[in-house]
């Protein structure tokens, strides 16, 4: 943005004072340009008006640039700092900060790509099974008792405080319902779902764990995706 007939000095000062992650609505004209530092190198936007839609706080808990750096980049910057080559190292964003501010963290390109890749995997997995004559089902995730023996479950009170209150738990597996569907003449069934259970003894230190699963019944396939702390709670 440069000072001209439509852009005043005050407008430049106003735009420069906007905090990072502020959402703006910009009006301008696309003009020819030679820009070497951008992927769009032959044109640029000549801004004439800037409207602030949502102003971000000055002290955000994390910055997209910091959260998007790899561990190798951070370690390299720390070595340069120790050698006196730079004044400061890159900021390392911990998992607790990421999880407590998941909305911001999802804007990091790598984190956003994880969700898109998972979506694509589920899409192609679902398409492949449907082409083979499978029927997709949706099984209950809130049940009255454990669906698998020998494993811990997530227990809670259903409709707590009312006359309908009763103990319940989150489903550990859709296995029982898949078997019921097969006995009901649905010979080949599958479900893309979440299974809620404690995976390994080491994870007992956390409040709970979540395993995203893609399950198929008929050709005895069962694909389990990565385990994440249940604070993510994204399926």
Task: Explain how this protein is built.
It is a single chain. This protein is of the alpha+beta class. It folds into 3 domains: 9-54, no CATH class; 64-99, no CATH class; 135-229, no CATH class. Helices cover 28% and strands 25% of the residues. It has 7 helices and 9 strands. It has helices spanning 9-16, 64-67, 71-82, 95-100, 102-105, 109-131, 175-183; strands spanning 23-32, 43-54, 135-136, 142-143, 155-158, 166-170, 189-195, 209-217, 222-229. The strands form 3 sheets. It has a 4-stranded mixed β-sheet, sandwiched between helices. A 3-stranded antiparallel β-sheet has the order 4-6-5, with no helix packed on it. A hairpin with a 7-residue loop joins strand 5 (155-158) and strand 6. The two termini are 42 Å apart.
Please tag this protein with its features.
four-stranded mixed β-sheet, 9 strands, alpha+beta, three-stranded antiparallel β-sheet, 3 domains, elongated, 235 residues
């Amino acid at each position: 943005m440069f000072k001209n007939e439509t852009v005043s000095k005050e407008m430049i000062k106003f735009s420069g004072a906007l905090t990072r992650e502020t959402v703006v609505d910009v009006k301008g004209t696309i003009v020819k340009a030679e820009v070497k530092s951008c992927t769009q190198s032959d044109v640029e936007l000549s801004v004439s008006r800037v409207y602030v839609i949502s102003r971000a706080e000055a002290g955000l808990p994390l910055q997209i640039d910091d959260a998007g750096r790899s561990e190798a980049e951070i370690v390299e910057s720390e070595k340069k700092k120790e050698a006196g080559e730079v004044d400061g190292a890159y900021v390392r964003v911990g998992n607790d900060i990421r999880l407590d501010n998941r909305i911001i963290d999802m804007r990091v390109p790598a984190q956003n790509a994880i969700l898109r890749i998972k979506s694509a995997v589920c899409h192609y997995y679902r398409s492949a099974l449907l082409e083979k004559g499978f029927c997709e089902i949706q099984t209950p995730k809130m049940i009255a008792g454990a669906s698998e023996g020998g494993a811990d479950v997530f227990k809670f009170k259903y409709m707590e405080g009312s006359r309908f209150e009763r103990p319940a738990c989150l489903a550990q597996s859709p296995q029982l319902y898949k078997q019921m569907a097969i006995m009901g003449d649905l010979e080949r069934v599958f479900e893309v779902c979440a299974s809620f259970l404690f995976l390994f003894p080491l994870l007992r230190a956390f409040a709970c764990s979540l395993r995203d699963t893609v399950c198929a019944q008929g050709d005895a396939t069962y694909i389990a995706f990565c385990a994440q702390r249940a604070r993510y709670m994204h399926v």
